[in-house]
What we know:
Blueprint (H helix, E strand, L loop, with lengths): L1 E9 L12 E8 L5 E11 L8 E11 L3 E10 L7
Amino acid sequence: MILAKVTGHVEATQKSDELRGCNLLLVTAIGDDQELIKDRTYVAVDSVGAGRGDFVLVEEYFALHKERYKAMSIVAIVEKVHKDC
């Protein structure tokens, strides 16, 4: 899983049948220092109702329909990160 921040959204007028009705969000990975990692921005299917500025957990290959294809999906909204160091 990837810890990330929602940094935008994607508008797509034509989607595959499996993605119809799904929101597509831009997410940028967060490093150990909890800062955004440059050049690590992805598009993910929002399955939890996340919004811009939310910290989220993203599953890199969460299967929507395993027999057809896999898509990156937001699977949780993160409230707090505790780092023991």
